[in-house]
Amino acid sequence: MPSPQEAARELLRRRGHALPPTLLEVLPHDPQAVLTWAGLTPDPWQSQALASRSNQALWLCSRQSGKSQTAAALALREALLWPGALILLLSPTQRQSGELFRDKFKRLYATLGRPVATVQETALTLELANGSRVVSLPGDEATIRGYSGVRLLVIDEAARVPDDLYLAVRPMLAVSRGRLIALSSAWAKQGWFYESWTTGEGWERVKITADQCPRISPEFLADELREIGRRWYEMEYLCVFGDAVDQVFRGEDLDAALSGNCKPLFS
After folding, report:
1. Which of 149, 199, 217, 260 makes a 20 to 30 Å CA pair with 254?
2. What is the tens place of the pLDDT at every residue in 55-104?
3. How many other CB atoms are there within 10 angstroms of residue 91's CB atom?
4. Average pLDDT over the chain, rounded to whole?
């Protein structure tokens, strides 16, 4: 199978070098072009995530590791290449979904020169001339029902998305057999994302800690560890799920207080 670069060169050769290939011609062969053509250099994990065709994926990533940018790039690639695609961006709150939609997705789309014309554009929706739609959803289970035929469902900050919201959106993929990408930093040892990461079946798992991100310096991480403490540092930067915030005693303290060697007082 030719590499993306070889495929692009072959495309130029077949066209007689009359014109350089367009982004839409290159994207089927080079998934990361949606970032590189915007002047961005993807990390190795981002390139692999964009090239993956897994139907269900969990991205457990440090803060500021580029997970939202990667999700936006994936959503844009699907919208450009698959006419009529419905792509949903879901976060715990409407503000967070809007950030992913406006600051990541729409900015990337604009930087690439709007390669497919826009038919309709609002604060929450973008519809392209090829029929594809990208919709930013509020984190409210009661108001998001009704979508179907979804090609790609992106759940941002997934560890903080309530179980009832997650259960309400999964049926949107039933007929279309669309893809589900859930991305998040670590949070408490509870909820569907934690359970899916630890014991779920059928998921592709990607784990990126802060020390694997070239844009985060060791000096910054040392400062953060000192300032916020080990518990929060491990959740935010090392992908370690912690105890619930309102938990009175740490899980390891409870485990240490228990012993299997004690005889019961009553039989």
Report:
1. 199
2. 999 999 999 999 999 999 999 999 999 999 999 999 988 888 888 999 99
3. 25
4. 88
CATH H-level superfamily of 9-256: P-loop containing nucleotide triphosphate hydrolases (3.40.50.300)
How many whole angstroms separate alpha carbon 199 and alpha carbon 62?
A: 21
Whether 188 and 250 have beta carbons less than 8 Å apart is answered as: no
Q: Under DSSP, is residue 191 helix (H, G, I), strand (E, B) or coil? A: helix
Question: Token pair for residue 152?
Answer: 């790609």
The confidence score (pLDDT) of residue 166 equals 94
Burial of 189 (0-12, 13-18, 19+ CB in 10 A): middle
Contact 151, 178 (CB under 8 A): yes
Q: How far apart are CA 149 and CA 171, in angstroms?
A: 10
Alpha-carbon gap, residue 92 to 162, rounded angstroms: 8
Kindly report the backbone phi and psi dihedral angles of residue 254, in degrees, each rounded to the nearest multiple of 5, phi listed first. Answer: -65, -40
Question: CA-CA distance, 49 to 43, in Å (whole number)?
Answer: 10
Query: What does the buried/exposed string (b/e) look like for 121-151 if buried means 16 or more CB atoms within 10 Å of the residue's CB?
Result: eeebebbbebebbbbbbbbebeebeebeebb
| The total number of residues written for the chain in this structure | 267
The reported pLDDT for the residue numbered 96 is 87
Q: How far apart are CA 50 and CA 239, in angstroms?
A: 21
As a whole number of angstroms, the distance between CA 79 and CA 154 comes to 13
Which SS3 state, helix, strand or coil, does residue 118 take?
strand
Whether 182 contacts 59, CB under 8 Å: yes
